[in-house]
Amino acid sequence: MSAAPEPLAPGPGPLDAVPESPAGDAPTGRLTAERVVLRLARPYLGRLVGAGLLAAATEFAGLALMATATWLLMSAAGRPPLDRLTVAIVAVRALAISRGVFRYTERLAGHDAVLRMITDVRARVFATLAARRTAGHRSGDVLSRLVSDVEAVQDLLLRVLVPASAAAVVGLSAVVGAALISPPAAGVLAIGLLVAGLALPALATAVTRRSAAEVAPLRGALATDAIDLTHGAADLAAFGATDTALRAAEQRAGRLARLERRLAATGFAVDAAGVLVAGLTAAAVVLTALAADVPGVLIGVLAVGTLAAVEVALALVAAARQWTQLRPGLTRVAALLEADTPPQPVERTPDTVDGVDLAGPHELSFVDVTVRYRAGAAPALDRVSLDLPPGRRIAVVGPSGAGKSTLAAVLTGAVRPTSGRVTLDGRDLSAYAEDELPRAVGGLLAEAYVFHATVRENLLLGRATAGEEELTAATAAAGLLDWVHAQPAGWDSLVGEEGGQLSGGQRQRLALARALLAAPPVLVLDEPTEGLDPSAADAVLASALAATPAGHSVLLISHRLSGLAELDEIVVLDAGRVIQRGRHSDLVAATGWYRDQWLLQAAAERGYLALAP
């Protein structure tokens, strides 16, 4: 394999120390996290306003229900004529029913708007992370951003903004209603609502801010731990590092538990203060109403109404606490969304670009191509030149680190040359757009990914319009058709996460079948028979080459030299340089690396076949 690029800085892993400060992206510069997120809510503003009004109607119906029921009970104690109570009785029933209806409708409207918005947010976050190749982020942290951090956007709307707006509307209505009975009592109620709706939320924010700021990155770190401990269990056990990794994960989990206990304790204290404020406000309103000679029935209405109104205002405490806990996650999401641009409709590129037919045969040329991953480092490719005209089949071989996979990466546009040129039909490879080049050049690259989906779905990534005959031909050429037919679900068999239900050889055959199904005019096959025994490898390679359409060129990268006799040219790389080239028969006859390696591999495979059952 070729020299690798400079590794990205890793995120927290199972052996890392417990972080002492919140991690994540820096807050956005131009806009707050909330404003960046809420820009995406504009298309759904009508639905969100409707949900807010329904939430306010729900709380108002609850407040009116308490006040009306209190008036009804206290008035009924005096045994008035029934006709004086009829309206109140009907009102109590109507308010009780309407409260449930409003609550149900508000939930439908709010979740409909938010889930539509979350679909857009998650898609944009995923697109941004994919565009950055998730640089600097571990897979667990990326998972946290896509799940818990994006859910923070949902909670911002449903658990912060909607309840807060409803509490403000209902609190104002309660003060106006109280003023109709007793203006002094309304003033006292307003003070109590300000304490419950402003002072206590500010206190809750202050006491929970620091702890909450550490929770989101710790949860991301724990997601990384879970993935590392699960997928790396065998390697950790092999190196005796399981206990160390578990201790590090337990430390992180313990710290998260302590933070959450602290948040729970402060939340309990603030909630207790809210109950005290509600009681004191109700008592103050009653005393004020008594001093103003308000009738006894209305004093009862004011007392119960005050308790209900302050309870609604205390929802702002929960909203403030929720907002404090959500803000780190919102900041992480906003850092991605602010850098992103709104997605534009993408039209399929034409088959012909600047006179080049992407679907037709191509002539590809390397001219003195040099690749350096770091300044001053030895080149991964050193002035490599080769031509791949239509229909030509070339193999690139060499020892590990010779530059073979770097050559494939340059060919597919993943790596740009430091110097030299790579042209496709005379046009520089860098001039092709990202969605154009794969239609001309592609195939099976190193460590091809197998998705947690069915066999059919994995294959159709190569060509979405392929029919069953084409699927059958591709899997037959890759030597996987018998296995597919042996499965109860056939093409619809699930292959598991990262192909976990398949053996290594079966995963490689599936990836090869997908590449053959795509059938790009320039087919790159990087170690297509990796994981197969010698006899199966030779058969699969021969059938794969035979399945390549006439006029399509092939660049084969392989550490095995068997099966290369029918290729047009073999290029031998060592330390990034071409040290030999020619046909198989010529290279075997000449002294050099190819002949020595051929004899070694032939002897090793004869021994393998002799020992095989």
If you had to describe this structure to a student in words, what would you say it looks like?
This protein has helices at residues 33-38, 45-76, 86-131, 139-181, 183-231, 233-238, 242-291, 296-313, 315-339, 404-411, 455-460, 468-477, 481-486, 504-518, 534-547, 584-589, 593-611; strands at 352-353, 356-357, 364-371, 381-388, 393-397, 419-424, 427-428, 441-444, 522-526, 553-557, 569-574, 577-582. The longest helix has 50 residues, at 242-291. It contains 17 helices and twelve strands. Mean pLDDT is 79; it is low at 1-30, 133-141 and 340-350. Helix 2 (45-76) runs antiparallel to helix 8 (296-313). The strands form three sheets. A six-stranded mixed β-sheet has the order 8-9-10-5-11-12. Strands 4-3-6-7 form a four-stranded antiparallel β-sheet, with helices on one face. The chain is elongated. It has 613 residues and is α/β, with parallel strands linked by helices. Helix content is 59%, strand content 10%. Strand 9, helix 15 (534-547) and strand 10 form a beta-alpha-beta unit.
